[in-house]
Design a protein that fits this description.
The chain is an alpha/beta fold. It folds into two domains: 18-60 and 289-379, Aspartate Aminotransferase, domain 1 (Alpha-Beta Complex), CATH 3.90.1150.10; 65-287, Type I PLP-dependent aspartate aminotransferase-like (Major domain) (Aspartate Aminotransferase, domain 2). Helices cover 43% and strands 14% of the residues. The chain has helices spanning 5-12, 16-26, 30-36, 62-70, 85-94, 107-118, 134-142, 159-166, 188-201, 226-231, 259-266, 276-287, 289-312, 333-342, 365-379; strands at 49-51, 101-104, 125-129, 146-150, 172-176, 206-210, 235-240, 253-256, 316-317, 324-328, 345-347, 357-361. Helix 7 (134-142) links the parallel strand 3 (125-129) and strand 4. Helix 4 packs antiparallel against helix 12 and helix 6 (107-118) runs parallel beside helix 7 (134-142).
């Protein structure tokens, strides 16, 4: 018997709240925690509609939930007892060898350890601003060299400017494609040409392509960088189960690359970063392609509804190939978020220097409908 997403979390019980809080701080949801001050919904506001962390509100597939429930009996066992089951399943899914896959506690761990493994105080991390910030924060914490390159006029990664910084012997270039928080995507040829030029100019520079939103992209020019990661030891691709698979709270991500490259990263990885429940759930999720197809179609419909809502009110919306929209509301984004939260809807925090832009994640059909009513009240 399948277990619904809400019923699953009810079955976990009150003690699960601590697990959720820990995940929020450790993973991509940490930006939501920071933006809200870590506070619960105000009394009297009811359940907070969370459209702030680019989660898949539909949750995991029924098959994945059944697998998680079936793994409860293994909760007393350390995850290494599952052996190589998950990397082997991921390798089979992508048609690669198991030693070309490195699993981690969310793709956020991949973004952290690549900085630890390949950057230094003299070998910079080259990244965009704004973009997803785990790598940036890691470099700042370690006091490593850092170059943050502003986006181009379309709010896409400025590849020529990033290439110029990489040529100076950078340790790593981080490409979030599609970019979070803005949404644009670069086509396969643009990414391949960028990698070729950087490899020629600075052969020791690593390039990480974060494809967290891969399944949502519909641009015909887009191509995954996985083939490039298998061809060149300087290239790594990161993926996550947090988005289209709806497993953000279970923390599963992975990298694909050459075996010799992943070996250099493995020593920085938390040994027991995954757990028996997440391992079993992720394997089952890979097998349920119908859930992914359903999620992509639903996301497209609701993302377009959000886009039209902002455009109908006269606001510019950035082209998005992810599960969120990014709109210029022509006012302070922090104040907008505060007003929306007071009415029961949480949206993304500000992303400097784009302080008049707000990021709104796709939720369920009902959540999006209620949120649109709130946006119209606040922005009228």
């Amino acid at each position: 018997m399948s277990l619904s997403r809400r019923a699953f979390f009810r079955s976990v019980g009150v003690g699960g709240a601590g697990l959720v809080a820990g995940s929020l701080l450790a993973a991509r949801g940490s930006e939501a925690f920071a933006g809200s001050g870590g506070q619960a919904p105000a009394p009297g506001t009811g359940t907070l509609i969370r459209l702030d962390s680019n989660e898949n509100a539909e949750g995991p597939s029924p098959r994945a939930l059944d697998a998680v429930r079936g793994a409860f009996g293994e909760a007393c066992r350390y995850p290494h007892r599952a052996g190589d089951a998950l990397p082997q399943a991921i390798a089979k899914f992508h048609g690669v060898a198991a030693n070309q896959v490195l699993v981690a506690c969310g793709s956020g761990e991949i973004l952290r350890i690549i900085v630890e493994a390949f950057a230094s105080p003299t070998r910079a991390l080259v990244t965009a601003i704004p973009t997803f910030e785990t790598s940036t924060r890691t470099a700042q914490f370690l006091k490593y060299a850092l170059h943050e390159v502003p986006l181009d006029d379309a709010l896409a990664l400025n590849l020529p400017a990033m290439e110029e910084k990489a040529r100076a012997g950078a340790g790593i270039v981080f490409l979030c494609n599609p970019n979070n928080p803005t949404g644009p995507v670069h086509g396969g040829k643009a990414i391949a040409d960028f990698i070729a030029r950087v490899r020629t100019a600075s052969p020791t520079t690593m390039i990480l392509v974060d494809e967290a939103y891969h399944e949502y992209v519909e641009d015909p020019s887009y191509q995954s960088a996985v083939p490039l990661a298998l061809e060149f030891p300087q290239v790594i691709v990161s993926r996550t189960f947090s988005k289209v698979y709806g497993m953000a709270g279970l923390r599963v991500g992975y990298a694909i690359g050459r075996a010799e490259t992943l070996e250099k990263m493995a020593g920085w990885k938390l040994g027991n970063g995954l757990n028996m429940l997440s391992i079993r759930g992720a394997i089952a999720a890979l097998e349920d392609r119908s859930w992914v197809d359903r999620g992509r179609a639903t996301n497209r419909t609701l993302r377009d509804r959000l886009r039209r809502t902002f455009e109908d009110m006269g606001f510019k919306v950035c082209e998005s190939h992810a599960n969120f929209v990014f709109a210029n509301i022509k006012r302070d984004a922090a104040e907008f978020a505060k007003q929306c939260r007071a009415l029961g809807v949480q949206v993304g925090r500000p992303f400097p220097p784009l302080n008049s832009w707000t990021r709104v994640s796709v939720g369920t059909d009902d959540e999006v409908r209620q949120a649109i009513d709130v946006f119209r009240k606040v922005l009228r």
